Amino acid sequence: MTTDEQFLPTPKQSPRLMSLDVFRGIAITGMILVNNPGSWDYVYAPLKHAEWHGCTPTDLVFPFFLFIVGVAMAFSLSKYTPENRPTAAVYRRIVRRCVLLFALGLLLAVIPLILDWLFNTKPLDFSILRIMGVLQRISLCYLISSAIILHLPRKTQWVLAAVILLGYWVLMQQIPVPGYGAGNFSPHGEGSLPAYLDRLILTSPHLLKRDIGFDPEGLFSTLPAVVSVLIGYFTGEWLRRHKVRTEISVQLAIAGLCCLIVGHLWGFVFPINKQLWTSSYVVFTSGWALLLLAGLYYILEVRNWRKWAWPFEVMGLNAIFLFVASGTVARFLIKTHIGAGKDAPTTYTWLYENLFRPWAGAMKGSLAFALTTVFLWWLILYFMYKKKWFFKL
């Protein structure tokens, strides 16, 4: 979800990477679209997360980001080999980037508390600060994946990825949770092993769903998310070693189809579930990532049809700025109100109810609000693109 050389080199570093920049741009565009409906009561089904088990197009966005992070690492870490170990300065840069990403995630969690304090006269209460989140998970996944890539041989990396997925499955099925038993996958997740461990380590007040003690981006479920990065890394390493040709797209597509089949079949015994980040979900979503990359690779690299993709490239080149800025603006609109009194609508709701719903209706107006949000942010990023302003960590 970032835009600089730490995760994805820019196209100027390698023409083969345009497909990754466009992939990232498509993913961040999808994130803005699904995160900003005019009303959460009026959202088309493909733009919703699965209620519990299952996978919708919206559930692909986050694992796509992690997959892209891994692909980029194949290029950024390629110069380091067992004979050419990274220096202490390299490790400091990796840790620094992870700390900054984690801090940005915490900042997004702090902003609503500050806005409540400023506008809603609530006390500033850090005892309910959410510790984990999207950027925090990416930070930890990048840190752990970097350690694996820099210190383990290639075959061992593959074996470890398989061990993590299989081990997560076994632990989820076999370790009993007090009051719920073993293998509890009931809706809301409070009886699952990840929720139990998060309640022990982070405590319920610091989780997203503090009332039931569950966080979909918790600590333990970050472990299989590391494999989403590693699969991307394996893909990037394979691409880096081959010349651009049609067969590469075909082979990526075949690998993607195999992952889809394996993930789907695995889902019968270990359900595909984003909030628990199950092993079947990792494999299944990696299959879709490989298929999309295969298509983009063929169109952009093999056929060199690139003009259509430029708007997505603009979005992808400043993705970390877009993620943080859009999240900040949305929180401000939700926490401020138009008018006085306890029934005064939030600024967010007022904009939807007065500018979109009257002419487009409830459902279409909600979608129009989201599309308008995407377009306005694209204009901002286009301005930054023309000015060559690229946010880097």
* Quaternary assembly: single chain
Measured between the Cα atoms of the first and last residue, the distance is 12 Å
Q: Element order, helices and strands? A: HHHHHHHHHHHHH
How many strand segments? Answer: 0
**SS element count, helices:** 13
Can you tell me the residue ranges where pLDDT is under 50 for at least 5 consecutive residues? 1-15
Specify the overall morphology. Answer: globular
Largest sheet: none
| Average pLDDT figure | 91
* Estimated radius of gyration: 21 Å
| Strand percentage | under 5%
Give helix % range.
Answer: 55-70%
The structure class reads: mainly alpha
Notes on the structure:
With 393 residues, the protein is mainly α. It contains 13 helices and no strands. Helix 1 runs antiparallel to helix 2 and helix 5 (154-174) runs antiparallel to helix 7. The radius of gyration is 21 Å and the shape is globular.
Quickly describe the structure:
The chain is mostly helical and 393 residues long.
List the helices and strands and how they pair.
Elements: H1 18-35, H2 61-76, H3 88-119, H4 134-151, H5 154-174, H6 193-201, H7 222-240, H8 246-266, H9 279-302, H10 310-316, H11 319-335, H12 347-360, H13 362-386
